[in-house]
Design a protein that fits this description.
It is built from 30 helices and 17 strands. A hairpin with a 2-residue loop joins strand 8 and strand 9 (about 160). It is globular. Helices cover about 50% and strands about 10% of the residues. The protein is of the alpha/beta class and about 675 residues long. The strands form five sheets. It has a nine-stranded mixed sheet, sandwiched between helices. It has a two-stranded parallel sheet with strand order 1-17. It has a two-stranded antiparallel sheet with strand order 4-5.
């Protein structure tokens, strides 16, 4: 439910603390943390703090979003909104100022809506925010904010450069907090050996990564020292601390993590194989100090924006054509404990968009209807969500957001820009300022379009791509994404025209062949579809999406054994593939095996809650198992996620009739179900 905003409403009056609510809330962000690496460490007793947190609270996967780029994701977490709403579409953006190289880093002035700390400022609550991605310049919130550029500094002849201007609010805190920065030179052998036991011998060799490790550890230590000082000396109601270290360590050292990759030399493997375990153990120790400072009256929520491949799905580290984001796994971590949080349970089906609504609920404040995520009420001791307001952005009052005319000084962001170039996330800005600005516009538009595609807002995705100039629209990435949209919209003729042209230009491009196979399958030409997909399989047999598509073709042809084999192959490659589990569910349903169908469909929606087809299959399986009331609930979720999904309303109406409801009662129930779906949320989904 939602209620309209009213100019007479003020934010503090909206607060409704519940019985047993936490006194404070602490949000801890570990960029790229992944259960696949954490769980073995917990089992071996190497992450005792997090292990204890899981036992005292709740934990589960956190579904990420595409594209998996940190500025976009961490701002979605902070705002509860998708990138098209919050305005952050990449690492850089065109700069309006001449002499800047044409681009600048995205910043807090790039964000177009309120974050949770702006909302809390409006509600007269104090926040501490340290290191959040794209938080520079620091916003004038109620409390203290330390931006993500604060940790960037150099040491010349033992003297550290001062903190960048506007990296701390209030500004008078800057000199004090500067004392808590940790330089790479302070990371001595005692700190290096847990990561690189052979450091003493390795440092004598001409090429080593010890310097990189020292820089990364110093950055992590700076964030932690700054955060712990503020947490212990300032009054606060909410704190958010962001650690980038696991992601940065992954880009530097994950290729050396066991098991040994073929592309890695034995010498490098021996030298750096302990680095990833080391950084996770380091984070566990830091978590312990945060929990001790926070105290028992604080609810603590730990999250990551995505995971990081650490197994056989790691990409070739020497493939220069791959984006660093190719290492990112689409499931991050979620763990929470403390007052207001249930104890000893699992969380299923959560996404990044659910974090802000859930944090607001813990703080006794309503989410808004323009936040597409849900309150994770199943993990809260007070499960009834506060009625939503229409939009926090429309509610008047001081929120601590920057005035629109404030701009980041590009000289302050130069070091961060260089690091992004070194990591491979962006290309070095062109000397031609106009070209650099065009390039930034191109990639940001493509990122925005990919986000819209991931949200199944396909016409909006095409609209975004159509804003590009003629040259940009002729590029392969844009044509591929537009073809994918046309396929998803069942615009087969237009998709065929575009894919045939792509096949002429790039006849062996795997994604082109994959989409041609998808199109042939949709048009009932399974023989041609299998020909295209077999070509893809021979070239790249370990693509999970490939085997899911093969399974779908076999299922449509009622070759159930082959379909089951294909979906199981996909799961052998990636055990957390929702599409594979959903495919197996459909296969078992086609074979009149509702128990197995229900099991796999439940697993699919546990991995990705926003999966209307999964809830629809669950409903069908429950009907066969003679559980009509449960089937009704599954269909209501399905309709809430996809109001236009064919067959869902018809099946729900049939179930109501079978229960003896009159047409008038059915219409009332349908109207009630529709009224509980926020319009803005539906538009986002």
């Amino acid at each position: 439910m939602s209620r309209p905003n009213d100019d007479t409403i003020n934010a503090p009056s909206l607060r409704q603390p519940f019985n047993g609510a936490p006194k404070r809330v602490l949000l801890v962000g570990w960029d790229a943390a992944d259960w696949q690496l954490i769980n073995p460490l917990i089992e071996n007793g190497e992450m005792p703090t997090l292990a204890n947190m899981l036992g005292n609270g709740v934990w589960g996967n956190l579904a990420s979003m595409q594209p998996m780029l940190s500025p976009m994701l961490w701002n979605s977490i902070a705002t509860g909104k998708r990138p098209d709403q919050h305005g952050i579409h990449g690492f850089t953006e065109p700069s309006p100022d001449p002499g800047t190289g044409g681009v600048r880093l995205v910043s807090s002035t790039s964000r177009t809506c309120k974050s949770i700390w702006n909302i809390l400022t409006q509600a007269q609550l104090r926040s501490l925010v340290v290191g959040w991605y794209a938080s520079h310049p620091a916003e004038p919130i109620s409390g203290v904010m330390v931006s993500n550029l604060f940790e960037q500094f150099a040491v010349n002849e033992g003297i550290a450069t001062p903190p960048p201007a506007s990296s701390v609010h209030p500004a008078e805190f800057a000199d004090l907090l500067a004392e808590f920065r940790v330089s790479p030179q302070e990371i001595d052998v005692s700190a290096i050996l847990p990561f690189i036991p052979s450091a003493a011998e390795l440092i004598k060799q001409p090429k080593h990564r010890i310097g990189a490790l020292q820089r990364l550890v110093s950055q992590i230590a700076t964030v932690h020292a700054t955060a712990t000082h503020l947490l212990t000396t300032q009054d606060w109601d909410f704190s958010a601390v962001y650690y980038e270290g696991i992601d940065r360590f992954g880009h530097e050292f994950m290729e050396f993590h066991p098991p040994k990759m073929d592309q890695v030399s034995q010498e490098d493997f021996q030298a750096y194989q302990h680095c990833m375990v080391g950084v996770y153990k380091f984070h566990d120790m830091m978590l312990q100090s945060l929990l001790q400072i926070a105290g028992d009256d604080t609810a603590v929520v730990l999250i990551s924006d995505h995971g990081y491949y650490s197994d056989h799905l790691r990409p070739d580290p020497h493939d220069e054509h791959l984006s660093p984001a190719a290492w990112h796994r689409p499931f991050g971590v979620f763990a929470a404990q403390g007052p207001g949080i249930t104890q000893g349970s699992r969380l299923y089906g959560a996404s990044l968009l659910d974090i802000a609504p859930t944090l607001l609920q813990l703080m006794g404040l309503p989410a808004s209807a323009d936040m597409p995520g849900r309150v994770l009420s199943e993990i809260l001791t007070e499960p009834n969500p506060i009625d939503r307001i229409m939009s926090w952005d429309d509610l008047p009052g001081e929120s601590g957001m920057h005035a629109a005319e404030i701009r980041t000084d590009p000289t302050q962001a130069r070091e961060s820009l260089r690091q992004l170039v070194d990591l491979g996330y962006i290309e070095a800005p062109s000397d031609d300022e106009e070209k650099a600005a065009r390039d930034a516009t191109f990639w940001n538009t493509l990122n925005l379009a990919q986000s819209l595609y991931h949200a199944a807002r396909l016409p909006k995705c095409i609209d975004a791509l159509d804003t590009l100039d003629e040259h940009a629209q002729a590029t392969l990435p844009v044509r591929l994404l537009k073809a994918a949209c046309l396929l998803g919209m069942s615009e087969h003729a237009a998709a065929r025209t575009m894919l045939d042209a792509l096949a002429q230009d790039a006849p062996d491009h795997l994604r082109v062949r994959f989409m041609l196979g998808t199109l042939d399958q949709a048009e009932g030409n399974n023989a041609s579809a299998l020909e295209h997909l077999t070509f893809v399989e021979q070239a790249s047999p370990r693509l999970p999406g490939l085997h899911n598509k093969l399974g779908t073709i076999h299922l449509a042809a009622k070759r159930h054994d082959q379909a089951r084999a294909a979906f199981n192959t996909a799961l052998s490659i990636d055990a957390d593939s929702p599409s594979a589990h959903l495919g197996l569910a459909r296969t078992h349903l086609a074979r009149s095996q509702p128990d197995q169908a229900l099991n796999h469909a439940m697993h699919a929606v546990e991995l990705t809650h926003h999966l209307p087809a999964g809830h629809f299959v669950i409903a069908k399986a429950l009907i066969l198992l003679d559980r009509p009331q449960d089937a009704i609930q599954a269909l209501r979720v399905c309709i809430a996620q996809a109001p236009q999904m064919p067959g869902a309303y018809e099946l729900l109406t049939k179930l109501y009739r079978n229960l003896g409801m009159t047409q008038e009662a059915i219409d009332t129930a349908m109207h009630k179900a529709n009224a509980q779906i926020p319009k803005a949320a539906n538009e986002q989904n």
